[in-house]
Structures are given as structure tokens and as C-alpha cells.
Amino acid sequence: MTGFDGETLTADVNLTTSDARATFDSVDYIFVTLPSHAQSDFAKKVAPFVNDKMKFVMIPGFGGAEFLLQPILQTGAKLFGFQRTPYVARLTQYGKSVWFSRKKSNILAGFLCDEIDAVRRDMEELFDMPCTGLSNYLAVTLTPSNPVLHTSRLYSMMRASEKPFERNPLFYAQWDDTASEILFALDGEVQAVCRALPKFDLSRVLSLKVYYESDTVPALTKKIRSIPSLNKILSPMKISPEGWLPDFDNRYFKCDFEYGLDILLQFAEALNLNSPTMHEVMNWYRRRTKNFVRAVNLADFGIKSAQDIYDFYHGTKQSQRS
Known about the structure:
This protein has 322 residues and is of the alpha/beta class.
């Protein structure tokens, strides 16, 4: 791996295999970096080889992991997830090298298990950075990261017209005030969800005004445009004879709308909250993709009210959920 500041890290890979049985033989931790839309199939594939001593680490942990990995949790295996990724990483050469940004100052992790201290210490050793255990996994699920960050930019960029773009815009370096306005609105609706759940300690679900140290729309736009590790990232588009078109199979679309923003919206609906911007952005995505089926339906997991949310995250053991 080559770092943002030129630092190079190398490692020996003990095993590369697609054999789930070989992969899960005598392991303590399984780090899962799959996008949300691949997690359900992954869980079904590996569940026969999982036992109750294993711990699954989701990086990052939002996007419905606690629902999508139910076949694994039913074995008694433990789940916890990072609130955000410790690095920004991009593939350099498949199977050989990646580029990564400077690591963040610490890891915040939410748990669906009672081994917080032991796991936290292991993460500190493995990642060589402090790890803070959050009081509940919901503090990961409600994190206003990619599900509001990516969706606000894509909506602001593409809502006015379905015509192809002449060039692929830089996703962050050309961020604009319209995207910031939508992002602040979505963030505000996420904070309303947090306030409606006083039984949970959600103090670590920071408003983006705090996280980005930006109280105004222009300040937020300037801040996002100025992040060095993000300024070369292009938008999720594909070239066609007519020009650049949205790549709706890209994780920025498929994961962050269907498994990200829509899950946040469903929490708001379960709490009877008015969330007009979430509805507006999700409705646009549904119309553009003609996909009106929810990828994760919280009602299927018994979540229809504030009490249901409490029961799911603090009541019935996850391994007993069907």
C-alpha cells in the first residue's frame, strides 16, 4: 500500500482463496469490507462455517449490516462495526496494491456483543490507533456518512436533467453549495431521529456541522472541496456514445440510496417524523432507476415504532432473530 504522504506498507498474504471453509478455519476475527448489496449473499454462503466464537468486523458498519448478516448472527457469532473507515483507499493494481490516505485519529466502533473491552483492545493493536467503543450499534447505523454525503451530491448533480454529461465531474473537488444545502437538510433529519430515541446514547452520532467544523453552506462547500485525500475522485459515471451517464450499479448509488438513505428514512417513518428531504431524494432515485422495492424492509425485522427499535438493539438477542 502506498500512503498519501508517500509511505509504503507491505505485508505477506497467508492465504488467498474463495473456499469459505478454508477461510473460516480457526479464525477469531473476520473483517468484512463488502458493499451492502453483497452482504446478504455473503452471509448465506458462509453461515454453515461460522461458530459462536467468531467476531465479524464491518468496515464501515452502517448500511444495514445488522439486518443483512442475520444468517451469521443466528449462529451466535458476534457483530461489531466501525462508524467510519480508518482510511480512504483506492485500488492501484488489482490483487497487488492500493493507495490509501493518512489514517484517522481514532476508531469508533459499535457492538452487538458483550465483549467490548477485549475487542476494543484488539482493534487498537491491529490498527495501531485508539479505539472507542460506542454504547450501542445504532450509533453506527445512524452515522451521517456516505448515505447522506453521496446521495446529496448525486441528487444535486443529476436532478435537473437526465441528459448525458459532457465530462465526468470531480465528485468532491467540484462540490457545490446546492449539494451542501441538501446535505445539511439530510443531516438535520438524521439528528431528529437521534433526538427521538432518548433511551439510546447517540451523542457520538455527530452532526456534520460539528464533524466538518462548518456552520454555513459556503463553509461546508469549501471544507469538502479542500480534503486532499478526496480531491481526485471522479463521479460514479460510465461513458456512452452520447456522453457520461450515471452508473447505477456503482456503490454510491446502489448501496448509499437503497441500503443507506432508505434505512435512515425507515427509522424516521417508524418514529413518525417528518423527513421531507429524505423522501425527496429517495423518490428521485426510485423514479430514475425504476426500482420501487426496498432492499431492506425494517418491518420484516419487527421495527415499526420506537419501542421496536429499542427491543431490536437492546432487547431480544440478535442471534435469536429470524
